[in-house]
């Protein structure tokens, strides 16, 4: 037995030496190491040795500060099934991933070639990666997703837009076990970025050998029926969707194989939802230690977010940002930091502004539409806003007044658009309004050209207190230049209903897409019905002109530019094209930004190491996933 | 001699006088009465009594703690009450807001100052306030909230809404209770059974979920003022049953009395019998019940608004004020935002004391 181990170790040494020759790992040669809890299982014969579990050339992760030690329980908290998003952010393993500075990095795909002007993508997978049950991860699993999930009309009624903008299936070819080629009809300039987003994990969470038994095409009918009966589900499609839903499939079943650093051992929604280290995880640190360092991640169920805040303050959370955001909570976290239970790591919001005004270009009342479509009106609004007051009241003066422009950290940053029309200048605003013929009456209130009083309603979702506060400040600012303004704080459902039918005057919403401008362009032109400045133009764009309203030429041009970006592969060219869109925004100011919010914080325990110094807060960038949580480690307190 | 004059005074006094004498002996009830009168006067004239308007934002004074009122100047001499100018400062290390008094500044609290303009009862405009200080001094008796709004002023405006809901709600309940209870007791028979069973059904519902259900059924796009009236109606729709029961019970016991029979034989109609003979004989009981019902209404409104299904901003009630204080941060860092609780407690206690006192007093001949 000992001789066997020796042989294996020698084999590992040889392979490591080979790796060295390849220059892959630098100049160190070693045996791979594993966590004590796994070494014990290997000794008991319940698990193959570590070099049999790892790929021949495992992916090497350079620790953030220093190589860590094994062990520890990472304590977090969640509020229930609807909150598993938090856990998804910890286990982030798509084919390509975001780097901590928001660029594309290889992950399960170690390299790729783009050919045919961005129509064909050849992805080379890391060889020898295994699912958490020991089965190999190959191209077959990805093909299973395309051929048997996406192409199956029962499972997927329409191809999601992120796969290809025109919603068409790519042609999928298996080159060899670890190489796959995807060919799209049209160039797909943003495909790699889309793969790095959370939805990109669809491709890496479809273990064919496991999911087969839920799929009509592969399962024996009587076995499938038995499962349906046992789980009390009406159709196989529903069953398959339940078992493979990205929202929770990794967290509600102990059987589901995974490629992530931790796999579920006590499924959610339990009081303590536990994920333990994946013995087949395919990444090592620079010393050849198999990752992750931390033994298990435990989410404790807390129905009330305020309790999570209290737990964080008491030092009962090791690292978490979720439910601890927002100015109010941040202030208390900072105030209670003196107790030494935690430190705070800032994360920059990737929304361009915390809230923006979207004047409705599709207003149903022609007179109002004319006013809201006039750039002078929107510029007047912008000058009338006292952003400093909003900053002081809502963000303690720590935010940054700006337009809904790309952020400084982004590649698309434009200093002139950021600062356009943001000076608080009532006289200028009033002059612009007078110029438009919106004259002030004897009561100090302005009237429209048709003699009707000029009244504005600000639609805002009531769920977040500071949004309503900001809306009220905006309303009083507009009141001061003679526009009678009312705040309509409503439930999210009602808000959606009103804006989708373009029934609003001005809607308020955060300026998503300050970093990921190309993936989330809705505030740069009417991209979808989520573009509240013109939901009907957005619909027109999304449906290729079949529904919605045809936009005017200057907006159509932006849509054409964006279409061009989608089929452009060169980063440089994409940037140049997007700069045109930004320039048009600066001229027309279709949306009026308020203030960029100051960073929220992660609460980090003093004994938690290798966490990022700072991070982004976004959904497309599922923080802290891109910071490699597998190399976080905990020392004894 | 002295004693007999005293006795004579009692014999000559009207019932109303007797009740009043008896009531006056009840110390707590008198305190309650003063409190109630005070609260209602406050809330009726809150535009004038509040130093600021409820929506004025002092954005350089967010989360200011209650202003210190000083009596002694730097030399230790007694002065009329004054405040110092206060400057906001954000501690960069802890991010906490601190307020530093500017030494040497001196702003006496003056009476009848001109300040924020308002529309008094929507009738005429004014800007006169009972008290205040000159700018840049500022007087926040209860501190300010997250928008830098004066909490004292907001409490006064909030009590106006909460107390008026109590009054209107109970008035409506009273109307419903009197009519339905009266009909039920006077007519009897199947009408009585029907009304009584309905009351039982209504009373079977646990009240908070019932309010929640009714409040949730309100269309969310309604204007805040409409919501206010609906909440009042909802509260009274649930609250009338007690009164109806009481009225019915009284009527049943009274309608067989000789004086009612006498009236009937004398040819009096039903209306006359009810309003002329029956009602006056138990008005005192109604008053007591009503007094005890008002705090229930106030509490119910506060509870609903606190849960976020009652009144919504910009309408300010004690409940919405408390809702804003509904988080850990407030309790830890800005405890003064909980002051509206004191108003709720004061209102409820005062009404209960008055009700108690009245209950003892309405039967002046009892010992």
Strand content of chain A: 15-25%
Cα(first) to Cα(last) distance of chain A is 38 Å
Task: Profile the largest sheet of chain B.
Answer: 3 strands, antiparallel
CATH architecture of the largest domain in chain B: Orthogonal Bundle
TL;DR of this structure?
The complex is a heterodimer of chains A (637) and B (367). Chain A is of the alpha+beta class.
3D structure, described in words:
The complex is a heterodimer of chains A (637) and B (367). Chain A is of the alpha+beta class and 637 residues long. Among the domains of chain A are: 95-196, Dipeptide-binding Protein, Domain 1 (Dipeptide-binding Protein, domain 1); 356-596, Roll (Dipeptide-binding Protein, domain 3), CATH 3.10.105.10. Chain A is 32% helix and 17% strand. The longest helix of chain A has 20 residues, at 2-21. In chain A, 48% of the residues are buried. The model of chain A is unreliable at 1-29 (pLDDT under 50). Chain B is mainly α. Chain B folds into two domains: 60-148, no CATH class; 154-361, MetI-like (MetI-like fold, Orthogonal Bundle), CATH 1.10.3720.10. Helix content of chain B is 58%, strand content 11%. In chain B, the strands form three sheets. A three-stranded antiparallel beta sheet of chain B has the order 1-2-5, with no helix packed on it. Chain B has a two-stranded antiparallel ribbon with strand order 3-4. In chain B, strands 6-7 form a two-stranded antiparallel sheet. In chain B, a hairpin with a 3-residue loop joins strand 6 and strand 7. In chain B, helix 2 packs across helix 14 (340-361), helix 3 packs across helix 5 (151-187) and helix 5 (151-187) packs across helix 12 (318-324). The longest helix of chain B is centred in the middle third of the chain and has 37 residues, at 151-187. The radius of gyration of chain B is 26 Å and the shape is globular. The chains are: A alpha+beta (637), B mainly alpha (367). Chains A and B meet through helix 10, helix 11, helix 14, helix 17 and strand 18 of A and helix 13 of B.
């Amino acid at each position: 037995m000992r001789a066997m181990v020796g042989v294996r170790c020698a084999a590992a040494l040889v392979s490591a030496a080979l790796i060295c020759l390849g220059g892959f790992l630098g100049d160190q040669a070693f045996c791979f190491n594993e966590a004590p809890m796994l070494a014990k299982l290997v000794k008991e014969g319940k698990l193959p040795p570590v070099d049999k579990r790892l790929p021949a050339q495992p992916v090497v992760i350079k620790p953030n500060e220093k190589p860590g030690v094994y062990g520890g329980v990472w304590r977090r908290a969640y509020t229930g099934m609807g909150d598993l998003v938090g856990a998804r952010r910890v286990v982030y393993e798509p084919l390509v991933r975001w780097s901590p500075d928001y660029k594309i990095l290889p992950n399960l795909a170690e390299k790729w070639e783009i050919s045919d002007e961005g129509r064909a993508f050849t992805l080379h997978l890391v060889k020898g990666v295994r699912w958490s049950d020991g089965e190999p991860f190959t191209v077959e699993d990805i093909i299973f997703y395309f051929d048997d999930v996406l192409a199956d009309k029962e499972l997927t009624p329409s191809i999601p837009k992120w796969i290809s903008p025109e919603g068409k299936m790519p042609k999928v070819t298996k080159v060899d076990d670890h190489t796959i080629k995807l060919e799209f009809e049209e160039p797909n300039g943003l495909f790699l970025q889309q793969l790095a987003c959370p939805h990109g994990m669809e491709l890496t969470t479809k273990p064919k050998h496991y999911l087969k038994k839920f799929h009509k095409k592969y399962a024996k009918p009587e076995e499938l029926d038995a499962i349906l009966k046992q789980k009390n589900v009406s159709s196989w499609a529903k069953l398959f969707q339940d078992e493979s839903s990205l929202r929770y499939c990794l967290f509600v079943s102990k059987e589901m194989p995974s490629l992530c650093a931790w796999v579920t051992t006590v499924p959610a929604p339990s009081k303590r939802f536990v994920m333990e280290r994946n013995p087949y995880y395919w990444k090592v640190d620079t010393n050849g230690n198999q990752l992750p360092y931390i033994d298990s991640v435990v989410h404790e169920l807390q129905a009330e977010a305020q309790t999570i805040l209290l737990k964080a303050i008491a030092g009962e959370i090791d690292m978490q940002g979720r439910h601890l955001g927002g100015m109010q909570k941040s202030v208390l976290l900072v105030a209670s930091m003196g107790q030494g239970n935690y430190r705070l790591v800032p994360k920059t919001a990737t929304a361009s502004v915390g809230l923006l005004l979207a004047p409705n270009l599709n207003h149903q009342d022609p007179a109002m539409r004319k006013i809201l479509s006039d750039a002078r009106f929107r510029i007047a609004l912008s000058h009338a806003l006292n952003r400093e007051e909003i900053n002081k009241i809502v963000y303690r003066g720590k935010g940054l007044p700006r337009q809904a422009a790309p952020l400084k950290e982004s590649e698309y940053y434009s200093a002139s658009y950021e600062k356009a029309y943001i000076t608080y200048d009532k006289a200028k605003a009033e002059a612009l309004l007078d110029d438009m013929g919106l004259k002030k009456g004897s009561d100090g209130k302005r009237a429209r050209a048709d003699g009707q009083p000029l009244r504005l309603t600000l639609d805002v979702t009531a769920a977040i207190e500071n949004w309503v506060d900001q809306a009220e400040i905006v309303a009083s600012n507009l009141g001061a230049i003679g526009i009678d303004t009312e705040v309509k704080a409503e439930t999210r459902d009602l808000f959606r209903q009103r804006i989708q039918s373009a029934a609003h005057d001005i809607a308020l919403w955060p300026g998503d897409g300050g970093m990921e401008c190309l993936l989330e362009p809705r505030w740069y032109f009417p991209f979808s019905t989520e573009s509240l400045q013109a939901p009907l133009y957005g619909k027109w764009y999304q449906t290729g002109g079949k529904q919605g309203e045809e936009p005017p030429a200057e907006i159509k041009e932006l849509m054409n530019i964006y279409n061009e970006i989608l089929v452009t592969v060169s980063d440089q060219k994409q940037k140049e094209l997007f700069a045109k869109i930004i320039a048009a925004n600066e001229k027309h100011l279709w949306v009026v930004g308020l203030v960029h919010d100051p960073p929220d914080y992660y609460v980090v325990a003093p004994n938690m190491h290798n966490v990022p110094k700072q991070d982004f807060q976004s959904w497309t960038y599922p923080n802290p996933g891109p910071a490699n949580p597998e190399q976080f480690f905990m020392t004894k307190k | 001699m002295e004693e007999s004059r005293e006795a004579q005074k009692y014999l000559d006094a009207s019932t109303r006088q007797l009740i009043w004498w008896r009531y006056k002996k009840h110390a707590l009830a008198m305190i309650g009465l003063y409190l109630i009168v005070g609260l209602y006067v406050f809330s009726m004239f809150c535009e004038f009594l509040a130093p600021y308007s409820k929506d004025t934002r002092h954005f350089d004074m967010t989360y200011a703690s209650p202003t210190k009122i000083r009596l002694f100047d730097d030399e230790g001499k007694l002065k009329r009450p004054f405040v110092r100018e206060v400057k906001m400062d954000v501690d960069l290390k802890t991010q906490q807001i601190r307020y530093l008094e500017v030494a040497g500044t001196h702003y006496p609290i003056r009476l009848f100052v001109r300040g924020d303009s308002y529309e008094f009862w929507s009738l005429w405009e004014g800007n006169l306030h009972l008290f205040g200080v000159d700018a840049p001094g500022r007087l926040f008796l209860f501190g300010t909230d997250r928008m830098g709004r004066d909490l004292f002023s907001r409490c006064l405006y909030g009590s106006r809404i909460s107390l008026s809901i109590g009054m209107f709600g109970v008035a409506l309940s009273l109307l419903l209770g009197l009519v339905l209870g009266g009909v039920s007791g006077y007519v009897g028979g199947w009408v009585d059974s029907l009304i009584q069973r309905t009351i039982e059904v209504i009373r079977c519902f646990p009240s908070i979920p019932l309010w929640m259900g009714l409040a949730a059924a309100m269309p969310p796009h309604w204007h805040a003022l409409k919501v206010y009236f609906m909440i009042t109606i909802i509260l009274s729709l649930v609250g009338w049953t007690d009164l109806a029961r009481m009225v019915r019970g009284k009527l049943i016991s009274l309608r067989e009395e000789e004086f009612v029979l006498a009236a009937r034989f004398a040819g009096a109609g039903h209306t006359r019998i009810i309003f002329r003979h029956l009602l006056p004989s138990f008005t005192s009981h109604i008053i007591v019940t009503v007094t005890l019902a008002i705090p229930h209404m106030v509490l119910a409104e506060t509870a609903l608004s606190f849960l976020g299904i009652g009144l919504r901003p910009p309408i300010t009630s004690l409940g919405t004020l408390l809702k804003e204080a509904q988080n850990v941060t407030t309790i830890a860092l800005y405890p003064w935002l909980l002051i509206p609780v004191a108003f709720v407690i004061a209102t409820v206690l005062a009404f209960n004391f008055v009700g108690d006192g009245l209950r003892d007093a309405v039967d002046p001949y009892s010992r």
